[in-house]
Amino acid sequence: MTGEKIFIFDTTLRDGEQVPGCKLNTKEKIELAMALEDLGVDIIEAGFPISSPGDFQSVSEISKIIKKSTVCGLSRAVQKDIEAAGEALKHAKRGRIHTGIGTSDSHIKSKFNSNREDILQRAVQAVKWARKYTDDIEFYAEDAGRTENEFLAKVVEAVIAAGATTVNIPDTTGYCLPHQYGEKIKFLMEHVKNIDKAVLSCHCHNDLGLATANSISGVMNGARQIECTINGLGERAGNTSLEEVVMVLKQHAYLGIYTDIDATKLNPISQLVSDTMRMPVQPNKAIVGANAFSHSSGIHQDGFLKDAQTYEIIRPEEVGAETSKIVLTARSGRSALAYRLKNLGHHFDRNDMDVLYEHFLQLADKMKEVGDDELETLASQYTATA
Ligand code: KIV
Ligand code: ZN
To answer: What is the pTM of this model?
Structure first.
C-alpha cells in the first residue's frame, strides 16, 4: 500500500457494548475479538475492566488470546481504574491503557466541580499511573469537541510530555460540524510543541449523523487513528461506523490514506455483531444494510442493468455482500421485470412483455414487493392465456 496508514481502533466491545440490550458475556466478547483481529483491526478496545468483574475477566481473557491486534482497556483518571486496567491487560502481547478525563468547561464544572488547573494535573497524574503498566498509553480528553482549543492544546502537550503516545480527541456529544472538528485537529497539529511524539485519534459520536464525516475530516487534518464500531453501535446515536470510514478511504484513494482492514470481511462481521448483540442493522445502513445493493425504481434498475456502475460505486463482493438485487415493486420497470423472469427461465418477446408488465403493475400495486412465487404464477397465467 502506498500513502499513510490510519490506525483502526475498534470500540465495539466497549462503547458499542454500552448500547442498552447489547451487553456481551466473556465467550461472546472473545468470539468477536477474534473476528475483529481477523478483519485487520489495529487496536481492540476490549472493555472497561473496573466496571464489573465480568468485564475485567473479558479483557483479561481477550488479552491472552489476541496476538496481532493491540488489546486496550478503558479507565477513568482514577488510580484504582488504572490499576484494574493494568492488571486485566497483564497477559497481553500488546496492551494499551486508555485513560482520560473531561476537559470542556461543562464537564469541569458540572461533573467535577473543579477548575482547569486541577483537571490538567489529574490528566498528567493518570498518565503517570498508567506508565507503571505499559508504554502504550492513550489519553482521552472527554468532550474535546466542546473544549476550548487553547486549553485542549495545553492538556494534549502535558499528557504527551507525561508519556501518552496516542491522544484521543473525542467529540463525545456529536456536536461538531466536519470543518470545526477538522480545524480542531489542525489547531492541535500546529500548536502542540511535542505533537510529533504522539498520534491524534478521532472518536466521534453520531448525535447529528456526522460521526463518519467528522472522523474523515479529522484524518484529512492530521489525525492518524479513527475510533469506530461495527454497524456504528455506541452510546445514544452511536459512534463512527468502521465499515463507513474504511470504504470512504478506499473509494477516495487519492487522499493517500489507507487502513489495513480486509474489506471483504465487512458484511460477515456486521452480521456476526448484529446476531451476537441481537441488534438488527437498519436496512438502509451504508455498506452493510440489506438494501445497500438493492435497486427498486425503474430508472435505477434500467441503468444498473445496462452498467452496474451507473448506480453502484462499490461492488458488493468488495465488502463481502451478496450480489446486487433487483427488487420488484410498483415502481419497477419493464427491463427489471424481464431480467427477473429471465432468471426464472422465462423468455418473452417485447409485445408479450408489454402486456405482462400491465398485469405485473396491477399485482404490484397491491403488494409491497413481488417475489419469485408471484412471478411464476404471473408467467404461467400469461402463457396459458396467450
Ligand atoms: O465518547 C467518549 O468521550 C468516550 C471516551 C470514554 C473515550 O467514549
Ligand atoms: Zn464514546
So the answer is: 0.96
